[in-house]
Amino acid sequence: MNYEVIMFNMSNYSEWVKGVNNRNFQIFQQLKKRKEIKRIVLVDYLPFFLKRGLKNYLKDILFPVFLRKKTIIYKDATTQAEIVQEKDPQIIHFSTIDSLFNSKLVVDKIEGVLKALPDNLNISKKKLKRIVWSFSPINTCFLKLRCDLKVFDAVDNWLFHSSYLKKRKVLEENYQEIAKKSQIIFVLNKHLKKFFLDLGRKKDVFVVSNGVDYQFFQEIKMIFDEEFSSIPRPIIGYSGIIGDRIDFCLVEYLVKNNPYKSFVFIGPIWPIYFRRIRDPFSPVEKLKKYPNVYFLGPKPYQSLPYYLSNFDVGIIPLKVSIFNRYTSSMKLLEYLAIGLPVVSTPTSGIEELISIKKKNSGIIYSAFTYPEFFKMINLALKKEGTQLKQARKKIAQENDWRIKVDEILDIIKQKLT
Questions:
Q1: Which domains does the chain have, with CATH numbers?
Q2: Which end of the chain is less enclosed by CB atoms within 10 A, N or C?
Q3: Is 70 exceeded by the pLDDT of residue 65?
Q4: pTM for the complete prediction?
């Protein structure tokens, strides 16, 4: 059986090209390798705020005509569709801002683009099973597309995401509709599963946690970065979005009490802090005043293995919050794939990945209090060795994205049989 996947993304194709790495991207990367997947239509994140709509319009609809040599198959004032790969599989990039005005327009245009496509796949269109797969609950127009299977992938719980607090009512309604009309729902952990069960969804809700591209983190390419190479060791590192999910009080406590350790942060500062960038009391600005703190900014995804391999300890200092309860840490697995000891607050994904008995055995350290986090960092630095590194890598290898997507596709195929 062969498949056509229409994927409603939680980010834009252009953002992936620039290095954005998320569950959505990793699943797409795996689908590209499957022989049974003949076509993938990537629908860019559908904007609901004017500011995001303007960003999508400028970067993905207006200027790409002049900057990229792609095969444009549809274009109007608010929408563009282009072929970015001809076959094996055929990949189509679809970007629109019509969701700002009328979501029905999005559905009509996607249907129109698919009908107009030439059959150059050496296979009759009738034999392609169409899967509509959404990663975003902010718009439910994916449920209106003609298809053989409607799949929703619940990445976190957006009801508790700080960026969507003003859309809480809309999200509540959308989640109810998704729970009712999606044929398969994938969730990151047991808490998200219970969330859908409480919405009345009784079956076909499957827990598939996040994974890691294990092999990618074994191929470490040397990079000349004068700023990074001059940082004193030991290096206590964090990689990822620097935003309000981080417990900045915990980080400041650690920085103050470890003056001879370097704390390195790699990743973009979430926009909530850009608005306060000159405020001396903002969390990031306060930390920048310490001589042992280094904010290196975002780095290309391809260089991430190099930076992580130069950490001595990887930390996940997240708040113990309702939002973090619904997550599954990709960062944790990336640290483990390098062989790093990890010190983390007890957020979702820690206990699910490693049993209670093993959590403080040197593979990963879970800290409930600030002093305990401080203690665990020192313990992680002392308790090292080849055996522990290999044990961490083995856990990461067992959670490779290839295995995760195999599991997902087995469920989908069984549903379509």
A1: 2-211+400-416 (3.40.50.2000), 215-398 (3.40.50.2000)
A2: C
A3: no
A4: 0.92
